[in-house]
Amino acid sequence: MNQDLVRPERFDGENSTRWQEKVKLFLTSFHLAHILEDDLKPIPEEKVDDSKELKEKRKKRKEGDYLCRGHILNALGDTIYNAYWNIGTTKELWIALDNKYRIEEASNQKFLIGNFMDYKMFDNKPIMTQVHELLNLISDLNVAGVNLDESFLVGVIISKLPSSWNGYKKKLKHDEKKHTLESIQRHLRIEEDSRIRESKDKQTDIISMANVVEDEKSNNYLGLRIIINLRIITKTRRRIKIREIATTIKNPVIWHEIVAKERKIFKIKGIK
User: Fold this and answer.
1) Any idea of the CA torsion for 133, 136, 141, 143, to the nearest 10 degrees?
2) pLDDT at residue 110 above 90?
3) How far lies 56's CA from each of 30, 36, 61, 141, in Å?
4) DSSP strand E in 58-179: where?
5) pLDDT tier at 239 (50, 70, 90 boundaries)?
6) Are the beta carbons of 243 and 237 closer than 8 angstroms?
7) Which residues pair with 11 in a beta bridge?
8) Which residues pair with 76 in a beta bridge?
9) Per residue in 37-55, pLDDT tens?
10) Which conformational region is residue 125 in: left (phi greater than 0), alpha (psi within -120 to 50 degrees), or beta?
11) Are 238 and 230 spatial neighbours (Cβ–Cβ below 8 Å)?
12) pLDDT over threshold 60, residue 69
């Protein structure tokens, strides 16, 4: 078997569980992984009257232990190699590495779990950007050997949606469909795009309404100015002019205010 295809990367002190799995796979390809097993039976110490079979077995065990230890040392980074190269047997070396770095990894796992559980989403930041940050934390957990159920992760993502998403959050919680990490991302992306479009449409509507109000103000002012200028005309002609000007005034409230004012000044009757 080509060793280059399965040789593990050099261990630098991080992700020890993953490194151990790769080393065991590598040793298995050479039929050496059994040397690391806890139930490996020890070979009796050498005696003068040992049988030929026992001598051969002892020799094979020593050769296997030597090769196995060499492969493990070869998979260590320089700093760690310098600290552990003088430890006796393969099993002793393996246990020493496990005791040292599994504890550190456990502490790192607690740190990563804390970061994941404490993560909060906010309304002032794009949802998908925050979802991707949360997925990166999940990836870090997987690398550290913390594998969480996908349904649980989907539930956590939904529960962390900000307050402006409460309605959609409730909808997802009551949805009978079982979402995956991929499908929940797709749904959130579609919802966020829809909200962005609606926000742009509302802004356009507000601008259009502002323009209409400005036009109405202009027309009302023009109409009122013309009416005031026509006060020198007779009452009969004024009634006609007021009706003509009313067609340029879009706001009926403004129209009735103008008519009421003109009635009061000229006591004109019959204008509606």
Assistant:
1) -170
2) no
3) 19, 20, 9, 46
4) none
5) low
6) no
7) 76
8) 11
9) 888 888 888 888 888 888 8
10) beta
11) yes
12) yes
DSSP three-state, residue 40: coil
- For 214-244, b/e burial (b = at least 16 CB within 10 A) is eeeeebbeebbeebeebeeeeeeebbebbee
3-state secondary structure of 11: strand
**Which residue type sits at 14?**
E
- The owner of tokens 């399965």 is 6
Dihedral of the alpha carbons of 86, 92, 97, 100, in degrees to the nearest 10: -100
Instruction: Give tens-digit pLDDT for 9-38.
Output: 899 888 788 888 899 999 998 999 999 988
What pTM, to 2 d.p., does this model score? 0.45
Residue given tokens 């019959």 in the structure block? 270
Phi, psi of 234 (to 5 degrees): -65, 160
- Of 237, 212, 214, the closest CA to residue 227 belongs to 237
Helix (H, G, I), strand (E, B) or coil at 76: strand
Structure confidence by residue, pLDDT tens digits, 136-171? 999 888 877 788 899 999 999 999 999 999 999 999
Q: What is the pLDDT of residue 212?
A: 52
Among 19-33, 183-197, 205-219, where is mean pLDDT lowest?
205-219
Burial of residue 162 (number of CB atoms within 10 Å: 0-12, 13-18, 19+): middle
